[in-house]
Amino acid sequence: QVQLVESGGGAVQPGGSLRLSCAASGFTINNYAMRWYRQIPGKEREYIAYISDSGGRTNYADSVKGRFTISRDNAKNTMYLQMSSVKFEDTAVYYCNVMIQGRDSWGQGTQVTVSW
């Protein structure tokens, strides 16, 4: 059974950094591209970042480009999102995602709150 578990969220001040993790089980991540999304209550889930199965290709939404870095450790079956220079508008629940055989799987999300 595919399972994704996000962790690492919390409170952070503007300009600070945070690293989110997405631990996968039930499948081997090095066979699949993966993504990070985020969602603010009352708004659509927003795409943040993509990483290819090998990790050789990445892509970012304009809103986080240059500040966030997606990576993966296939040996640990875990994907990461390094968040730097965070802004108030980065406050959201962050989700990791994988599509396997046409089916989307999501974690439960981890809350990130940017505030003083």
Description:
The protein has 116 residues and is mainly β. Helices cover 0% and strands 53% of the residues. It has no helices and 11 strands. It has strands at 3-7, 10-12, 18-25, 34-39, 46-51, 58-60, 68-73, 78-83, 92-100, 103-106, 110-114. Strands 2, 4, 5, 6, 9, 10 and 11 form a 7-stranded mixed β-sheet that branches. A 4-stranded antiparallel β-sheet has the order 1-3-8-7, with no helix packed on it. Strand 5 (46-51) and strand 6 (58-60) form a beta hairpin. The relative contact order is 0.32. The model has no long low-confidence stretch (mean pLDDT 96).
| Average predicted local confidence, pLDDT | 96
Beta content comes to: over 45%
How would a crystallographer describe the biggest sheet?
A: 7 strands, mixed
Structural class: mainly beta
SSE inventory with pairings:
Elements: E1 3-7, E2 10-12, E3 18-25, E4 34-39, E5 46-51, E6 58-60, E7 68-73, E8 78-83, E9 92-100, E10 103-106, E11 110-114
Parallel strand pairs: 2-11
Antiparallel strand pairs: 1-3, 3-8, 4-5, 4-9, 5-6, 7-8, 9-10, 9-11
List the keywords.
116 residues; mainly beta; seven-stranded mixed sheet; four-stranded antiparallel sheet; 11 strands
Quick overview of this protein structure:
This protein has 116 residues and is mostly beta strands.
